[in-house]
């Protein structure tokens, strides 16, 4: 894809700015956005002109979670499918399984985790549900004073998605992760949770040791992008 329906994608001076662009809907998440995000991170990974990716939201929100106004299954999944363990092992890329069963937000999180460039979340407002969980595999999370973070799945009677049950405990610890997901509160940008939120993101290499192909001066590029 060169043009996106739900995203703005631009690269200037080595910095790819990826903006969730549904401001009238508070950048709520859709299947189209999921597919475009996967494409965008794959594209950034292979783009030699991109040295760091900064993700933010248009308007006053970062991402207000899944768009629940859509008709049918808002996650784009196919009701009634009963895949077996063998199906999920051997047919993971089969369109019926890929589109009808796999966690939509999880596909985005895995694409971010697989991105070969440092990824920075610039959380400019509400980041709720998938809006919060999609930031977990990013290397650095920066929250403005207007940010509101919410792992609110318990309010909807669903389990945390987008591989957050793996990422969140590794960032803030198991006890705090359980507290945040069970209480399903909206967290304001006060010191106690901000310290925990960024505890393992003090440096790019320490935060994400899986990366072995950092571009030259990637830490400098990331710091420069934050100040822009």
UniProtKB/TrEMBL annotation:
Give the source's domain of life in one word.
Bacteria
Q: Please give the InterPro entries that the UniProt record associates with this protein.
A: ClpP/crotonase-like_dom_sf, ECH/Chromodomain_protein, ECH_dom
Domain Enoyl-CoA hydratase/isomerase: where? 16-172
Q: Which family does it belong to?
A: Belongs to the enoyl-CoA hydratase/isomerase family.
Q: What is the protein's given name?
A: Enoyl-CoA hydratase-related protein
Q: Which organism is it from?
A: Branchiibius cervicis
């Amino acid at each position: 894809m060169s043009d996106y329906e739900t995203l703005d994608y631009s690269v200037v001076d080595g910095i790819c700015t990826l903006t969730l662009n549904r401001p009238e809907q508070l950048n709520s998440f859709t299947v189209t956005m999921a597919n475009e995000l996967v494409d965008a991170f794959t594209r950034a990974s292979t783009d030699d002109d991109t040295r760091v990716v900064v993700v933010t939201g248009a308007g006053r929100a970062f991402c207000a979670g899944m768009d629940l106004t859509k008709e049918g299954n808002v996650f784009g999944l196919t009701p009634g499918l009963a895949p077996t363990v063998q199906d999920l092992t051997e047919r993971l890329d089969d369109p019926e399984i890929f589109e009808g069963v796999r966690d939509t937000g999880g596909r985005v999180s895995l694409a971010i985790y697989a991105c070969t460039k440092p990824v920075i979340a610039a959380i400019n407002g509400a980041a709720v549900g998938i809006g919060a969980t999609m930031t977990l595999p990013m290397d650095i999370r920066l929250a403005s004073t207007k940010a509101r973070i919410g792992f609110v799945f318990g309010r909807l009677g669903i389990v945390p998605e987008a591989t957050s049950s793996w990422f969140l405990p590794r960032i803030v610890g198991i006890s705090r992760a359980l507290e945040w997901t069970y209480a399903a509160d909206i967290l304001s940008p006060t010191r106690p949770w901000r310290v925990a939120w960024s505890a393992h993101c003090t440096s790019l290499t320490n935060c994400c040791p899986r990366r072995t192909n950092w571009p030259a001066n990637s830490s400098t590029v990331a710091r420069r992008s934050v100040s822009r």
